[in-house]
Amino acid sequence: MLLFLAAVARSYHPGTGFTALIGFPTTAPNESPALQAIPHFRSSLVSYDGQFYAQRALDPLLRDPGIDHAMDLAPFRARRILFSWTAYLLGMGRPAWILEAYALQNVFCWLIIAALLTRWLSPVSARGLALWYAVLFSHGLLWSVGLALLDGPSLMLTMCAIIAVERHHPIFSAGIVGVAALGRETNLLVAMAQPIPKDLRGWLRLAVSAVLVVLPLLIWMDYLRSVYRSTTLVGTDSFVWLGTGLAAAWRDALSPGMSRFAETVASACIIVSLAAQALFIFLRREYESPWWRVACAYAVMLLFLDPVLAHPQTGAITRVMLPLTVGFNVLLANEPRPARFWLWFAMGNVHLLPAFHVLPIAPWP
Asked: How many domains is the chain partitioned into structurally?
């Protein structure tokens, strides 16, 4: 954890704070007048989606047309509003503080995730520490922290929802999932953590939970329709026929040849990891485990991702599949045979190798 915090500290710059974590570009920046008035770090090395959600945090009720004009797919960014709201609240409405809060909320969520993980993975043995580390320094989670994206905070809420189910509070869990869906629509899959109904009361509770899961997003979508009219579904993550997106994206990722050897190796590591994780989950079939049901839902979604999301070099697939990665490691902790444990661990967590080079956050300098 000290290693991680030292990496975060390297992203601090006098005058602009931790805004280097957001990924504002130096060339042709898409910046609203509200953002231009705030000192912030611009990088020639990284530029990613966090810059749009950070700008959205300056106007979380969508009243400033200048912010809409400064970003691509404004309705799509507005639909994923939750962590722009939290940054606004943490920054107490002050623009410079809002940017700092947005940049650092992934860091705070990482620390909370580290604590929550000890519920399932106790880092007091070689096996427990290896699994704990494999989640915290996974490619997807470091990418989320290093570029101030939505996936780290989403994972934290996913873990909270599963803990609520394990403590026999399914209605509370459904409420958490409903709120999390405002951060990313795929968080709706965490509703699979709901206990399997075994009687009439269980089915009624599941029906109430279903309403709580979808209600916040429906209310927010209705508000968005009043602002954007018929364009609220623009930019929705798309899906394709079974396996076709994976096949196209992974074939392309492995074909550059020796001229891009490092990228090819990194892509291969990510592909092997996700394939192993999905296979392990499909073979395990622990239906009563909330983590298995959630991980299985994401493993199925993996098979239908479109080529853009599925391509290992875009940085999206490991972030989107974070619940699968965590579920894999949590369930692997119960493997009694050491040889099989370490074999599955090596295959399912080889994504740690390219994670060492995620900028600007990495396990070590």
From this structure: 1
In eight-state DSSP terms, residue 197 is: P
- Round to whole Å and give the CA distance between 284 and 106: 31
pTM (2 d.p.) = 0.93
The CA distance from 237 to 186, in Å, is 9
Q: Are 324 and 141 in contact (CB under 8 A)?
A: no
Domain with 335, as residue range(s), is 244-355
- The whole-angstrom separation of Cα 226 and Cα 327 is 38
Residue in the block written with tokens 């119960």: 334
Residue with tokens 């199925």, as numbered in its chain: 300
CA 294 to each of CA 168, 232, 300: distance values in angstroms, whole numbers, following the listed order: 17, 27, 10
pLDDT tens digits along 49-88: 899 999 999 999 999 888 888 888 888 999 999 999 999 9
Per-residue pLDDT tens over the stretch 208-224: 999 999 999 999 999 99
